[in-house]
UniProtKB/TrEMBL annotation:
UniProt protein name: Transmembrane channel-like protein
Transmembrane segments: 256-285, 350-370, 445-465, 480-503, 515-538, 558-583, 659-682, 732-749
Ranges for domain TMC: 549-655
Protein keywords: Membrane, Transmembrane, Transmembrane helix
Signal peptide: none
Membrane topology: Multi-pass membrane protein
Subcellular location per the Swiss-Prot or TrEMBL entry: Membrane
Family designation: Belongs to the TMC family.
Domain of life: Eukaryota
Gene name of the record: TMC6
Disordered, as annotated region: 1-29, 53-75
InterPro entries (UniProt xref): TMC, TMC_dom
GO MF annotations, alphabetized: mechanosensitive monoatomic ion channel activity
Amino acid sequence: MAQPLNFVLNVPETPEEHSSQEPSPYDENEVHDSFHQLIQEQSQWVAEEGLELQQREPGAGGPKTSGCGQHALPGPEDALAHSAATLRVLASMPSRTIGRSRGAVICQYYNRSVRLRRRVSRPELKGVGRSARPSLRLYDLELDPAALQEEEKRFLLVKELEGLPVAQRNHMLRGMPLGLAEKRCLREETQTPKEKQRGRQGPHGLFPCCGRLRDACVLALHNLGLGLLGGLHALRPWHYALKQIGGQFGSSVLSYFLFLKTLLAFNALLLLPLLAFIVGVQAAFPPPAPPGSVPSFTGLELLTGGGRFTHTVLYYGYYSNSTVSQPCVPPSGGGQCSREADSLPYSMPLAYLFTVGLAFFITCITLVYSMSHSFGESYRVGSTSGVHAVTVFCSWDHKVTQRRASRLQHDNIRTHLKELLAEWQRRRGSQSACGRLRRVAVRGLVWLLSLGTTLGCTVAVYAFSELMIKSPVSVEQEGALLALPVVVCLLNLGAPYLFRCLAALERHDSPVLEVYVAVCRNLILKMVILGILCYHWLGRRVGTLKDQCWENFVGQELYRLMVLDFIFVLLDTLFGELVWRLISEKQLKRREKPEFDIAGNVLELIYGQTLTWLGVLFSPLLPAIQIVKLLLIFYVKKTSLRANCQAPRRPWLASHMSTVFISLLCFPSFLGAAVFLCFAVWRVKPSSTCGPFRSLNSMYEAGKVWVRHLEEAGPRVSWLPWVHRYLVENTFPVYLVSALLLAVIYLHIQVVKGQRRVICLLKEQISNEGEDKVFLINKLHSVYERKERSRAGRTQEAERLTDDPDAW
């Protein structure tokens, strides 16, 4: 440990000291200069002490010098020992002594308190009489023992703290690296009698009993609030379970559940405006009942979505094309309602169109923000060098005291270290040229087989959809409507298993690359199948259902696909994980459990979310069904993961997986659903028998009809038609907003490039500073060696002259 530095206050005497009036410590310039001078003197004394080299005996095993007498700075590979003088100088550096010496801490905070007190407004020193100034004469400045010096510095610190406001004083005491007992003593010594009396009575002048009662009430309310917050955290399905999953199975499996959590938030945000402006309003003002009897509930509606569900707020056809307004109450003297009473009624067609558009716009903004935020978190500017040391030495949270939490944190750190080491080993691996060519050929063949499988599934879906059009299903055969969704779900379930068998031939070195390839193949399969289904709904079914409500049919098809997709997910979990584990343990006598299929499960989530976005226009309550589905999937997958799956055999770091999942959700999924809905709104003619747009040629015409009503409503809302005409129908604002968005993106890219360039320059500067320090230390080392050799030579010469007087 370095020797603590002893600072002695040495105020130079002035001619005025010989007079009857004494100098004042409030003359801060003198006090500050004297402290600064003493610090320089002590630093110079330490440096001179370090330069006194100790004589080493020859052959003591010390490091040998070269011809020039210089030593290279020891590096991590060859750690050479410096001389004792060099080590003493290094140990005397301020960065290595501050915090070790109690006197140094008190002196440091004394200087800081002086600077803070200067900011407090007070009368100038010239206006204060010398008799009113405190005296330094009582301080025994000539005494040199360490205890007296420390007491002197402590007394000065207390004096300076007394001149500070209470808030600044308490803040400085909290920040001092001293013990609690020392801080309490300093606080008691700096308190005035009035503050001590106020402390005995309480902060608000209360008696001790009242103060204790108030503190007990506050503590009880605080504990109640913490309990309620803990209850709210426990209500979330991802609070403690996600930590356990990350610690036991790693970040790769955790990325799936984090993505599921993100989808829950997106669906909740999508559902709120739909419930507020469409479903809630129509439920409060229901349309007239349709002619004929309403079918009774049979239970098959839970699978098909038809029957009794057709005449509910679940589907597009239930919503009316009328206006919703408060009933008009005529005046008591007779007459008609005034024009202001019903000038702007609530138009259901307009509310339906604008609410769906607003919900999609909010989802788009949130999705883009989440994607950019995820990019910023995973693809940080700079390198990841030193992450192993940071994980080893800086990962533990010392505030964790419970055994359960500490074990969980231990598992998280251990799994993270496994992933980092596995990633480091994969980067160091090398392959031969022949091995690379062989793997490229195998992977090309596997890709051809995968694309052929996707093409076959697409042809099968198209052929079966055409068969369903040629053989229509009657109302009594409602169960036959499940045929096309069952075929689609079977293909979506079977093709990924075939892709997994083909991927075993590729033998990817990196599990990350293997997951990315599997995600890409499954994504191509599902998006192509959804494209065929969209063509089937808007290109073929609209023409065959002219006298029926084709919007209800599309909504029911999407509902059936969602329900059957959930059922097949449960079957896959049961037979693909549970049954396979039982067969592996009972029949094959293996202890290994199956691994969690990240690619297949993530693509199932993306596929289900795409179905939700496609069906929002035709079934406004599909996001609510998706939320229930995601919650059930979370609990089923969590239970199956703990019981039937094991951690990945090859640990890998999923640092970018969440970003990739959000990107896939944005571009193929959300963008495709937005194009589908825009085509349905602008190009497809609505049904003439149901829905809020039954009397229009397109859903977009509802805006034009609303504008005409606004023009007739009066001059108070004349600005709204202008906004619709020049900002909605005109394409120039769209191009302007797009240009501004591109400009912002370009500027953001340039800022990131500039930050990367600055970081590179700072790294280079840090490297140069390190080289400068190495050079200076080597120079100092050589100076010490030369001085030691010269001193040894003079000593030997003196001894020789003493032994041989004739040499004089």
